[in-house]
Design goal:
Two copies of one chain form a homodimer.
Chain A lengths: L1 E7 L2 E8 L2 E5 L1 E6 L8 H6 L5 E5 H5 L2 H10 L1 H5 L4 E5 L2 H7 L6 H10 L4 E3 L11 H19 L6 E3 L8 H12 L6 E3 L3 H5 L3 H14 L6 E3 L5 H9 L4 E4 L1 H7 L2 E4 L2 E4 L18 H5 L3 H29 L2 H8 L4 H9 L4 H5 L10 E2 L9 H13 L7 E5 L11 H10 L3 E6 L2 E4 L11 E2 L6 H17 L5 E5 L1 H10 L8 H14 L3 H5 L4 E5 L6 E6 L2 E6 L6 E3 L1 H10 L6 E4 L1 H8 L4 E2 L3 E4 L8 E5 L5 E7 L3 H6 L4 E8 L3
Parallel strand pairs in A: 4-5, 4-11, 5-6, 7-8, 9-10, 10-11, 14-18, 15-16, 15-19, 24-27
Antiparallel strand pairs in A: 1-2, 2-3, 12-13, 16-17, 20-21, 21-22, 22-23, 24-26, 25-29, 27-28, 28-29
């Protein structure tokens, strides 16, 4: 069973319960060849700390000695590995050799009988060159074999492999059908040829299509992805497990894996690595080694590099910076950059899992950053949810010398407070009216001073869209300091624009949806501001505390009175998480909502959204922060669904 | 004395001879506070392998006990450090505290007397906020004090600090004047405030201005640059030495340095580092430590991270991939990306040091790659040196689906061989006629399939420039496969275009300058081709072997007959390296040309250019490959100037 512990969009840290113990994901399972091991399983476990490995049941079965030992003593003893063992079925061999002399039933039973913790169906490897019909037939067979395997698995966990070649609809369909079967993990198969030929953009499409169809409560294993430079991107897309035979394969060819790319020992002029394998080594010492010693050293280096990259990726998830890390890593090869750029086509899907805000700032690393789901979210919500106050409008393009959205506030204020006009700055995120300038990612973003054509293009395109979408009294485009002075000189007297009221209205609509501001602020509104920063802290309506405003991301925290207003104003299930009776009881006392107790919820909830926890009769039992989306809350059997801030008594 | 061992543009690996021993650069000198040391000098030397450190002579001098010990036993014994000790003069203290109670003469003598290996002048710290006049005066004083110090230095090496605030002309002038004095290394000073406020674009300007004025045979030290994320960029610009007090300062604040950026322990959710300091540590174990233990651990982590980054940078220099590394590293912070983008303004200067080709391929990492000097070189030489054959011309834009320059060859050939037309593809480097499609970086480059607006813009701009610059019989613009078919259908019969003759003419002009092809190929030309690849191997004119074509970068290797033709056709010093009598003797026997024996040479020679080695009477003594530019050959006293391939007897 899988439990989600931390997340950043689709990227997640989970704990997976297996027959062989707990496994924290994302993780790498080194591939161990049962006949020859470059690094022994015991060493992998003890020295490297790999808690799981993957080996090939087909190879074991085809060697009489190995087979007998595995059947009599179990695969753990055979390999001398005290951790979790996953086995592959022979599918890859059938891809390489054209066929295998074993049936699905037989190899699944064999995996179960040798005590594999996670076994794999004998699926059909759908190659990238295959046509639609052949692929479709292979998917049918794969699903059928998975169905067959489910009944045979016993206490072994079963991997149901998603196939479908490059046909996104077939991948998604396959994933959806497998999700309905009683399998435990989902490898994405048939992708090795894509990785071998550096077709990372296609790989991105395949992963996304698979993720769309898969139930989120099962781990996703990217079969054969064993290069550290790809981990961040794959994890960003929701992959949880990787396996690597390449650490040894590369080592035999003399190739070092680095997150910056692969280097052949022959082309290397120096050893620049400080990992436990390389430390103290030099080109001289390495050329003095025999082939086997050198191979062993490089294999250990490769394992270290991957292990530490998995750790870095996990840290990035926990800290909310997986996008920054993935964007950095994808510069290690132009083909990987293609993969990163392909993400732009999937932003609608990615946005569903995009958190409301992050602890980490938005760091721009290149034009690809503009296609992040956080940027898309802002653009979308601005055009859908933001209502222009009925005033003249001034639009300011930031010029080259002045940084973007993050630092313009004081100037914007200066202008808007002395004029009748309303002020909007064109930032790389799109038009930012002064009322929205404190929300994530606007205020928490950093861009380079020197712009690029893509940023410029995006700004102008959104500017155009704004002027087509809406009507204004007057539109002045501000480009640089000179015009700013002109604007100031035409400004007449004090402003009619109430920035504070506009801010709470705009943020409420942006965060909770159109109409939220009318529902929340119907009555006499009073604002409590911080004495030091002068920023809004609490919003009281008719004397009751409805909302607090968070300093770190500019969004609201719900208070019970605010929740009541929204519940009354919006029909169910909007903004709600509906829990069963057993849970309601606890939640009223301020205890968290856990998966397994959620009956339903608003499909538009995104991670870290403020939500209203209600019982089946739509009575409020608590307020809190959602950790998961609707699909996730309903799929997971374990783990936190809503972090409750306050229980609400009846 | 400095010797250049390996280079990639301005980035270089050198060995520096100091009174305390040899030092390989680029290197980092940890700053050791003589009063408190977080990590002991002995540990720095023995455990970390730092061969040099920097300490502050002003602090030693102002503490009676330290002063007496330093004067009686020397600074090496005082710190218990067997390596090279560089000392700072108190300039930074005068910046921080407003003034210091010591004079230049006194502190220089003091540094000499305590046995410092490299001492520093008491220069004036020119702050970024200073006006022109104040800065100019400070530069005068700095130069004057350096002049004074030269006479006092004894056997100590002397650091003459380049000042000039943000005024590029003052920086360059200061550098030029200091270069004439008998000093040994050149720190760039006054830059700490730029780095503290993340003004990396300004830092780039300052470094470039200083490098323009400095004599290349002395190491350049970037004062106070002690964050690993900046090393690759600074080395790319020709900085050789760094110092870091920040490893300890950051550690005291709980900050970990990573090449991916700085992280405060408080914000970190995990330890994801495998360095000897962090290995086996967890957030729990670290919070269980007392402040001092934790500080010591982080300081050691920071030192490891910097040490290993210096090693990576060195490897990148040796392998010819410093641009790729720097571009990756500059994604760790948007301000650093500004620094990277600023390089575009310095490409004319950078191109002078840009090698003819590299062993590593050109990997595009983002739009900044288009401003690399290698791309600028191609654009420049194409427009200056390439002559259009008198034929109709077809221009093909690569469409989105098709990769750029690296893979179009077969299609280009197909078209050009069946038509009367000449074929040019618009690549991100500019127009690439089929004759130039094998040279570096065209054939050795990789771009992502999915383009960006800047690449597109550049391609269209250069296309326009081409159609303005030159006249053609006919111009067809090819955009994608459909049009390709049309072109094929209108092609009539066999081609009049001799691709092989065009190639050798175009490459000769591109490599050796306009007119080279007429000089070289005047006579009956015969080509020897590889039987397997069908590529041109040797060019014979009137029976004599004049040139060979290299498979790896598509350029020519000179043969003695080719050298003779070029010597006769071009007036001195074009393509020549002129050596003195002593050297000529040796070079005729096939021995290399060393610095110190070069009288003069062609100013247009770039690293790895084919050159003609001649004596004072312009008699050819050898042919070979230049390792250095003219300025470098004349400045260095030691090291390889031309790698001779063949001596030429009289």
């Amino acid at each position: 069973m899988l439990e989600l512990l931390k997340r950043d969009g689709l990227a997640r840290i989970c704990s997976l319960e297996t027959p062989g113990g707990m496994l924290e994901t994302p993780c790498l399972l080194p591939v161990v060849n049962p006949r020859i091991s470059t690094v022994s399983p015991r060493e992998l476990y003890e020295d490297f700390g790999f808690k799981a490995l993957i080996t090939n049941s087909y190879i074991i079965r085809n060697n009489r000695e190995l087979k007998e030992k595995a059947l009599s003593s179990g695969v753990h003893e055979l390999l001398d590995f005290p951790g979790i063992i996953m086995t592959d079925s022979g599918t890859f061999q059938s891809y390489v050799h054209g066929e295998v002399d074993v049936g699905n039933r037989e190899i699944v039973e064999f995996q179960r009988d040798i005590g594999s913790d996670i076994g794999t169906v004998l699926d059909i490897f759908t190659e990238p060159s295959w046509g639609r019909e052949r692929t479709s037939e292979a998917v049918e067979v794969t699903v059928e074999r998975t169905r067959e395997a489910v009944d045979l698995k016993g206490r072994m966990m079963l991997g149901g492999v998603v196939q479908g070649s490059l046909f996104e609809d077939l991948r998604e369909d396959c994933a959806r059908r497998l999700s309905k079967l009683n399998v435990d993990i989902h490898p994405i198969g048939g992708v090795v040829p894509l990785m071998e030929t550096y077709r990372f953009a296609d790989l991105v499409d395949v992963i996304v299509a698979s993720k769309k169809g898969l139930i989120p409560s099962r781990p996703v294993h990217l079969f054969g992805a064993g290069h550290p430079m790809i981990f961040a991107l794959a994890v960003l897309l929701g992959c949880d497990m990787f396996d690597s035979a390449s650490y040894a394969k590369y080592a035999r060819d003399g190739r070092f894996m680095f997150v910056e790319g692969t280097m052949h020992l022959e082309d290397m002029k120096r050893i620049s690595c400080d990992c436990p394998a390389c430390r103290g080594q030099s080109m001289e010492s390495m050329s003095g080694m025999n082939q086997e010693e050198r191979c062993r050293l490089i294999a250990r280096h490769n394992l270290h590099e991957m292990k530490i990259e998995i750790e870095r990726v996990k840290r990035a998830i926990a800290e909310g910076s997986i996008w920054e890390l993935a964007e950095q890593r994808c510069r290690s090869h132009p083909a990987l950059l293609s993969g990163l750029r392909r993400l732009a086509e999937h932003k609608v899907f990615l946005e569903k899992y995009e958190p409301l805000s992050r602890d980490s700032p938005f760091f721009y690393t290149g034009k690809e950053s503009l296609d992040r789901p956080s940027a898309y979210r802002y653009e979308k919500r601005f055009f859908e949810r933001y209502k222009q106050p009925q005033m003249d409008i001034l639009v300011g393009f930031e010029d080259g010398r002045r940084p973007y959205a993050s630092t313009y506030s004081s100037e914007m204020r200066a202008v808007s407070s002395v004029s009748d006009a309303h002020f909007v700055v064109m930032s790389p995120f799109g038009p930012v009216p002064i009322e929205l300038d404190e929300i994530y990612p606007i205020a928490q973003s950093l861009f380079p001073d020197i712009k690029d054509a893509d940023t410029d293009l995006k700004m102008r395109k959104l500017m155009e869209r704004m002027s087509h979408d809406q009507t204004y009294g007057m539109c002045v485009i501000w480009e640089g300091e000179e015009t700013l002075k002109t604007i100031r000189s035409i400004a007449r007297g004090t402003s009619k624009f109430d920035i504070d009221m506009s801010r709470i209205r705009a943020v409420a609509d942006y965060q909770f949806g159109e109409g939220a501001s009318s529902i929340l602020f119907d009555g006499e509104v009073k604002l409590v501001k911080s004495k030091t920063t002068l920023r809004i802290r609490n919003v009281l309506v008719d004397g009751a505390h409805v909302l607090s405003m968070r300093a770190d991301d500019g969004f609201f925290t719900l208070r019970p009175e605010g929740a009541r207003r929204l519940r009354n104003g919006f029909t169910s299930p909007k903004l709600r998480v509906i829990v069963n009776k057993d849970s309601a009881e606890f939640n009223r006392q301020g205890k968290n909502v856990f998966c397994g107790f959620v009956l339903d919820c608003d499909d538009e909830i995104v991670p870290f959204d403020e939500v209203i926890v209600v019982d089946e009769s739509d009575t409020i039992v608590a307020i809190g922060r959602a950790m998961l989306t609707r699909t996730e809350m309903l799929a997971f059997k374990k783990g936190l669904a809503v972090k409750v801030r306050e229980g609400v008594a009846t």
